[in-house]
Amino acid sequence: MDRIEINGNEQQYTLRDYREGQRGKIIGIKGEGKFKTRIVEMGFVKGAEVYVEKYAPLRDPVEFIVKGYHVSLRRDEAEMIIMSEPF
Question: What is the number of structural domains in the chain?
Answer without folding.
Answer: 1
